[in-house]
């Protein structure tokens, strides 16, 4: 989505511009977490829960264990949610709508902050309790709603290109591709090698879920297009956006992207790359440490995403932790959030699971750069990444994108028709 856009939908644009009360957007009204300067009180100590996606690396439990050892009366239980971000969001919303106290601290995708804050499902947080000035600015912005802090960055995310260094080298290619055309030309060369027999060229995340929104927006942005303009107005029915979508549609048609990738989320793509089925993969940094323990260990590297005429741009991803408004033991929760988002924890998440740290200093740490040579590339990717709109109705806009992009990828609609329909859906959404 457009880098300069934080508001795509009229309702939130009005709220931001005029500073109107939340009820203008249909929120439930007065609560202690309504963004007023006083904010909620954080009282109560005792056991709490941490609700987050299933963790394939084991590092989350490790960090929680180290908290639990030191806080035997304030233990944290890790509630594991499905890997699919859409399902995580659904479960958290259900939890909030029933005012359940089952989830205390929520691991939230960066795109949920506005929606959860506007509905008062999460508490406004005291910004002075967290070392936000040490964090990369775009990551801190994702945690704010109407200028106030509602979450704390735990891990950032930038899309990168994983590629098989061993095969490229064998095929006489000395550097990672910077354009889509170079990437497909590299694949043609690599596929002539006997060891690349049966391999596919490229995959990303194309199942109909948030990951498709990301991959669509990246393709559009990497072709010089935008999804919404600087004022939050949708502007996706353009020749540049079409070139971006056409890259994906054309790649499915000509087999550059394997057919089965239409069912890929992050994990399916990672497994395909790790089992030697893919030459190139668009994915997030977490894949690095897992792939280093797989069959392709030592045979791959990471480069910036390619684009139409030069390097492309990533969407800004990541996860922030927030405090459920309906939780008990909020004093414990706040302390745990501080611990979980500390520089020490971020360093453990990076070392053990290659999660992108929000802390700037970790990207320049010599020992860490030795372990993860791509850290400078990642820092650049995050600083240049395009945020998805920080709007209350983000879920509706994202569903429309998923719907139309999927229709184009599966051949149900032409790219031109899908973009035309998407433009009209986003306009309708914005007018609500
Ligand atoms: C990653 C990103 C998140 C994004 C999701 C899409 O988890 O951190 O921001 O929305 O992938 O699948």
TrEMBL record:
The lineage of its organism: Bacteria, Bacillati, Actinomycetota, Actinomycetes, Kitasatosporales. Residues 28-47 are annotated as: Disordered. PANTHER family: MALTOSE-BINDING PERIPLASMIC PROTEIN (PTHR30061), MALTOSE_MALTODEXTRIN-BINDING PERIPLASMIC PROTEIN (PTHR30061:SF50). The keyword Nucleotide-binding does not apply. Residues 1-26 form the signal peptide. Belongs to the bacterial solute-binding protein 1 family. GO terms for molecular function: maltose binding. Residues 28-41 have a biased composition (Low complexity). InterPro entries: SBP. This is ABC transporter substrate-binding protein. GO terms for cellular component: ATP-binding cassette (ABC) transporter complex, substrate-binding subunit-containing. It holds the Pfam family SBP_bac_1. GO terms for biological process: maltodextrin transmembrane transport; maltose transport. Keywords: Signal, Transport. Gene3D superfamilies: Periplasmic binding protein-like II. Transmembrane segments: none annotated.
């Amino acid at each position: 989505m457009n880098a300069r856009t934080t508001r795509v939908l009229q309702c939130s644009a009005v709220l931001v511009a005029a500073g109107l009360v939340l009820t203008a957007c249909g929120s439930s009204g007065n609560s202690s977490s309504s963004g007023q300067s006083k904010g909620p009180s954080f009282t109560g100590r005792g056991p709490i829960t941490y609700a987050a996606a299933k963790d394939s690396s084991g590092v989350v439990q490790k960090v929680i264990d180290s908290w639990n050892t030191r806080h035997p009366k304030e233990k944290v239980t890790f509630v594991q949610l499905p890997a699919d971000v859409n399902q995580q969001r659904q479960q958290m919303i259900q939890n909030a709508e029933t005012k359940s106290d089952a989830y205390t601290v929520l691991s939230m995708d960066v795109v949920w902050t506005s929606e959860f804050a506007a509905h008062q499902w999460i508490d406004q947080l005291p910004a002075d309790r967290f070392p936000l000035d040490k964090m990369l600015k775009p990551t801190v912005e994702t945690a704010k709603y109407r200028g106030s802090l509602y979450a704390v960055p735990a891990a950032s995310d930038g899309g990168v290109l994983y590629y098989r260094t061993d095969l490229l080298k064998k095929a006489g290619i000395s550097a990672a591709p910077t354009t889509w055309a170079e990437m497909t030309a590299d694949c043609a060369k690599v596929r002539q090698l006997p060891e690349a027999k049966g391999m596919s060229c490229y995959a990303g995340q194309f199942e109909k879920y948030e990951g498709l929104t990301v991959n669509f927006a990246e393709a559009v942005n990497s072709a010089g297009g935008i999804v919404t303009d600087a004022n939050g107005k949708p502007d996706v029915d353009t020749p540049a956006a079409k070139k971006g979508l056409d890259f994906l549609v054309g790649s499915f048609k000509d087999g550059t992207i394997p057919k089965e990738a239409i069912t890929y989320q992050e994990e399916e793509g990672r497994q395909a790359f790790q089992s030697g089925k893919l030459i190139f993969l668009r994915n997030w940094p977490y894949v690095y440490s897992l792939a280093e323990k797989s069959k392709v260990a030592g045979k791959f590297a990471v480069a910036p995403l390619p684009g139409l005429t030069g390097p492309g741009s990533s969407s800004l991803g990541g996860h922030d932790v927030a405090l459920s408004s309906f939780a008990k033991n909020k004093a414990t929760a706040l302390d745990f959030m501080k611990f979980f988002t500390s520089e020490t924890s971020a360093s453990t998440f990076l070392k053990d699971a290659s999660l992108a740290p929000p802390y700037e200093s970790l990207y320049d740490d010599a020992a860490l750069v030795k372990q993860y040579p791509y850290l400078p590339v990642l820092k650049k990717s995050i600083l240049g990444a395009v945020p998805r709109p920080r709007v209350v109705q983000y879920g509706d806009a994202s569903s429309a994108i998923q719907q139309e992009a999927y229709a184009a990828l599966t051949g149900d609609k032409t790219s031109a028709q899908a973009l035309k329909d998407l433009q009209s859906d986003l306009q309708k959404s914005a007018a609500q």
